[in-house]
């Protein structure tokens, strides 16, 4: 076991932080660190985003094991950028322990998408304010989910420029670990791991407990993932996820897109750690009191809600018709939503045959962790599209659709803010958990323990 005090000493005290760093702020911080510590910190441009932003690798340490840390692979999940900023600051110190490794930080994997989210990075946040500034690209525009692999004899995944930069980094470093930093809007915290043992999973769970963040006890969103401990799940390879989706009649290529960093790095024996942390928590997610509703009826209700959201998006896109050009990132993201939500509904329905009684926590998660999140995200994205279209080409059609969607969104928002606003988690606590998980994995690799 890696001593907890060693992990805490390397992570250090995280200063109270009021907001997430923007792309430009993070780049300025990196430049300042290179200038202040030229013997310990190096930066290299490893590629360019589709929008022309530099993709930067920050390198610290000289050890034989290589550790790759990825920030913001999904641009609406900025905790990782704050975590990387903190870890660079800690490891750059002259007396810092780099755990016998060379660290390779990619502070922002998707700067184009991140810039479209920066309007909500400053706190205080509400679930509604985040939704109104939300952007997440369609699957085939997510750098971490379009690695090229072969599945059932056919090529899968068309890599973006950002993905190609990560591929080159992985091939160059042959990393012992890839830590991919994610977050959710609401719920509990959890981790995906490619391996490890009970001691590793227990250490990860304790990081959540020590920070007062409840462990997510629901089903993982990665198809086919096994539960290894409370709040810790298996990170399946593409093939296992694809088999699970195929078994319920869902096209895995259309749903997932391509391989992940785990699939691409597999020939190097790379361990992968994914942290999923919430911006808000609610103790009701852990309520194990048995209700009077069957779990089957609960998930069928979720499936019906998913289809309603999908229908709303399809109707708006149809009514806007030829006014849409395909150039808007909001439009491209929304084009993928009806099929994606319909497939998610199919997955829910495949699990609806269970007749056991649901716990109150399971009901709460279905209604407010999953359905509530999807309503807010989709509604917010629709309004961003309509805002942009109204500015570009004002018309009665656009105005009417904006008013109609705003009414629906306001109803969804009022429900969330009344029944599940959540308790905000201090950003410093989220950074502490994420940084602690990475350092825990790195220390175990140093000690020859499974990760």
From TrEMBL:
Residues 20-291 form the Peptidase M14 domain. Gene3D superfamilies: Zn peptidases (3.40.630.10). GO terms for molecular function: metallocarboxypeptidase activity; zinc ion binding. GO terms for biological process: proteolysis. It comes from the Bacteria. Keywords: Carboxypeptidase, Hydrolase, Protease. Pfam families: Peptidase_M14. This is Zinc carboxypeptidase. It comes from Nocardia tenerifensis.
């Amino acid at each position: 076991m890696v001593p907890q005090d060693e992990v805490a000493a390397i992570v250090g005290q995280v200063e109270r932080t009021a907001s997430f760093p923007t792309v430009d702020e993070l780049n300025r911080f990196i430049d300042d660190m290179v200038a202040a510590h030229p013997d310990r910190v190096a930066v290299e441009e490893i590629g360019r985003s589709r929008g022309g932003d530099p993709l930067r690798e920050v390198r610290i340490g000289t050890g034989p094991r290589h550790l790759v840390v990825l920030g913001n692979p999904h641009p609406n999940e900025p905790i990782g950028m704050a975590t990387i900023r903190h870890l660079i600051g800690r490891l750059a110190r002259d007396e810092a322990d780099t755990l016998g490794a060379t660290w390779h930080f990619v502070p922002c994997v998707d700067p184009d998408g991140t810039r479209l989210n920066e309007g909500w990075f400053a706190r205080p946040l509400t679930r509604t304010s985040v939704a109104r500034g939300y952007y997440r690209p369609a699957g085939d525009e997510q750098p971490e989910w379009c690695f090229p692999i072969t599945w059932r004899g056919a090529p899968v995944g068309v890599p973006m420029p950002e993905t190609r930069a990560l591929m080159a980094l992985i091939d160059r470093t042959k990393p012992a670990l890839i830590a991919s930093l994610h977050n959710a809007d609401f719920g509990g915290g959890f981790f995906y791991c490619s391996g490890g043992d009970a001691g590793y999973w227990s250490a990860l769970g304790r990081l959540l407990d020590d920070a007062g963040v409840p462990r997510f006890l629901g089903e993982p969103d990665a198809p086919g993932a096994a539960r290894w401990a409370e709040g810790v799940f298996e990170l399946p390879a593409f093939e296992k996820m694809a088999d699970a989706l195929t078994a319920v009649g869902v096209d895995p290529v259309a749903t997932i897109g391509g391989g992940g960093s785990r699939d691409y790095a597999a020939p190097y024996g790379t361990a992968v750690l994914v942290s999923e942390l919430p911006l808000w928590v609610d103790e009701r997610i852990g309520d194990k009191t048995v209700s009077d509703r069957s779990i089957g009826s609960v998930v069928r209700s979720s499936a019906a809600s998913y289809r309603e959201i999908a229908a709303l998006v399809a109707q708006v896109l149809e009514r806007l018709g030829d006014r849409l050009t395909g150039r808007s990132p909001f439009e491209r993201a929304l084009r993928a939503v009806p099929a994606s939500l319909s497939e998610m509904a199919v997955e829910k329905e495949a699990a609806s045959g269970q007749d056991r009684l649901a716990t109150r926590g399971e009901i709460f998660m279905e209604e407010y962790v999953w359905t509530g999140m999807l309503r807010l995200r989709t509604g917010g994205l629709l309004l961003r599209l309509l805002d942009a279209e109204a500015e570009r080409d004002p018309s009665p059609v656009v105005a009417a659709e904006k008013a109609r969607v705003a009414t629906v969104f306001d109803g969804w928002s009022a429900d969330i803010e009344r029944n599940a606003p959540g308790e905000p988690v201090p950003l410093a606590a989220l950074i502490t958990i994420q940084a602690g998980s990475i350092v825990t994995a790195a220390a175990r690799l140093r000690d020859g323990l499974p990760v």
